[in-house]
């Protein structure tokens, strides 16, 4: 797996309970998220991968996977290491293993580990396919959110907020 874009936090258990990372926004407010949670970005297209990484890395380490097979392998390795992902951005159209099949396998691994629905990683589908059938299939396979490309920073922040992974803070001065 190719790992890149490491953020300013570590995944040590001591940091998980006590730190909060804050990222300022251009409008005078900021976003805050618990530190030390790992996020995975699974995207074969460079520009989208870079944009997603920049949006997420102020809050956590970011692992990059270029296709669905790498995503499933990274997800499994992180769980086995006791450092499971709390968020995965997943493209549907990718080489080797498409995102829909990767989503199914990740949810299957969570169920095998005894995780109940809603207790595993938050999975956001980020794809150019935005027809109703694709969107419905994503949610049928237990995706938590859906974003149509082209990806926009504000949309990423909105989705992170809706999933409870970041909170918008009022201006500090």
Tell me the CATH topology: Rossmann fold
Biggest sheet record:
5 strands, parallel
Q: What is the CATH architecture term?
A: 3-Layer(aba) Sandwich
Calculate Rg over CA atoms: 15 Å
Strand order of the largest sheet: 4-3-5-6-7
Mean pLDDT across all amino acids:
75
Let me know the number of strands. 8
Structural class: alpha/beta
Report on the structure:
The protein is α/β, with parallel strands linked by helices. The chain has a single domain, classed as Rossmann fold. It is 36% helix and 22% strand. It is built from six helices and eight strands; from the N terminus they run αβββαβαβαβαβαβ. Strand 6, helix 5 (132-140) and strand 7 form a beta-alpha-beta unit. Helix 3 packs parallel to helix 4 (99-112). The longest helix has 14 residues, at 99-112. It is globular, with a radius of gyration of 15 Å. The protein starts with 12 loop residues before the first helix and ends with a strand. 38% of the residues are buried. Mean pLDDT is 75; it is low at 1-25, 28-36 and 169-173.
């Amino acid at each position: 797996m190719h790992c890149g874009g490491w953020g300013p936090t570590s995944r040590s258990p001591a940091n998980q309970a006590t730190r909060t990372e804050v990222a300022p926004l251009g409008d005078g407010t900021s976003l805050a998220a618990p530190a030390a949670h790992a996020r995975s970005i699974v995207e074969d297209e460079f520009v989208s991968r870079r944009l997603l990484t920049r949006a997420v890395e102020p809050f956590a380490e970011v692992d990059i996977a270029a296709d669905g097979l790498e995503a499933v392998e990274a997800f499994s390795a992180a769980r086995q290491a006791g450092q499971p992902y709390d968020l995965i951005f997943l493209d549907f159209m990718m080489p080797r293993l498409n995102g829909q099949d990767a989503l199914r396998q990740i949810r299957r691994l969570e169920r095998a580990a005894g995780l109940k629905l809603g207790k595993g990683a938050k999975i956001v589908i980020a794809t150019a396919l935005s027809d109703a059938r694709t969107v419905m299939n994503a949610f049928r396979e237990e995706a938590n959110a859906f974003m149509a490309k082209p990806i926009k920073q504000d949309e990423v922040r909105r989705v992170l907020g809706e999933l409870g992974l970041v909170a918008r803070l009022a201006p500090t001065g």
